[in-house]
Amino acid sequence: MNTGYGNSVTFCPLTAGHRVVCFIVLVSLLSCLEADSSSGWQLLSPGMELKYLAVTQPKETTGARLTVLRIDPHLWELEIMGTSRTGETSGHTAREWCEAHKLTAAINAGMFKTDGKTHVGFMRFREHLNNGRVNSYQSVAAFDARDTGSLAPFRIFDLDRPGVTLLSILKDYRSAVQNLRLIKRPGANQWSQQDRMWSEAALGEDSSGRVLFLFSRAPFSMHDFNQQLLSAGIGLVAAQHLEGGPEAQLYLRVGEMQLESFGSYETSFQENNSNAKPWPIPNVLGVRPRSSATR
Question: What is the pTM of this model?
Fold first, then answer.
């Protein structure tokens, strides 16, 4: 039997006991889906959910929304992919990075230098070092825990916390990326109000330790962007800025579901909503299913 979703299903006769078990499982699944729907989260795959947040600020355009991709790092692993790893001389869109390297989703890894490949802060993926220099940015996202039994698989650290240094983070994690801080743990907006605004791609962590890929094409000041997220009830405890304006982007493909989002507006750079295609970027933060997880 063809289900219409590209899968073939073969039916076998069931005993009465099997029918009862199947009925219980089906009811449980339907209950989970109903609860998920009522919360606004769309289940894309085990450990990966999507939600759109309505924009509540009147100065934003009608229909504007914030995209939140929530990822369980126990089921999905993070990977930094970029031209310094591949040896290429030019970047790609988030979609192209995903297609070339079999990533399920990708977002900007952060801002980059004028050479078009080097991250502005410290960035390391396992044994590959893109930039070993630490700048003044106070947020470090870390993953690839050295002790998977006792350490969280993903964590955003504040470098101004007592006892927290990049060296201490790297003792526990093999991969880390330093970026401009948006929200300090446990949920403090670090930006005062300003006139500058832009489309935004950001990385967050929620109170359950899940990874949040955050995106808005509608331009915000970062103070207002933070406030929208903190008041949305998604459990956000920490976040860092990845990229703004037309270079900001988020791509996702799970089965038949595909989402490609990219920015446009940026004060003093491109003050309009006319950008019609994603720009090539040198580095992305992507996710793929963990090989050890049951999919």
Answer: 0.86
pLDDT one-digit tens code per residue, 76-123: 999 999 999 999 999 999 999 999 999 999 999 999 999 999 999 999
- Would you list the DSSP string of the chain? -B-SSS-B-------HHHHHHHHHHHHHHHHHHHHHHHHT-EEEETTEEEEEEEP--TTSPTT-EEEEEEE-TTTEEEEEEEHHHH--SS-B-HHHHHHHHT-SEEEE---B-TTSS-BSS-EEETTEEEE----S--EEEEEEES-TTTS-SEEEEETTSTT--HHHHHHHEEEEEEE-EEEETTTEE-----S--EEEEEEEEETTS-EEEEEEEEEE-HHHHHHHHHTTTS-EEEEEEEEEGGG-EEEEEETTEEEEEE---BTTTB-SS---SPPPBSEEEEEEE-TTS--
The sign of the CA dihedral 89, 143, 251, 205 is negative
- CA atoms of 142 and 167, how far apart (whole Å): 12
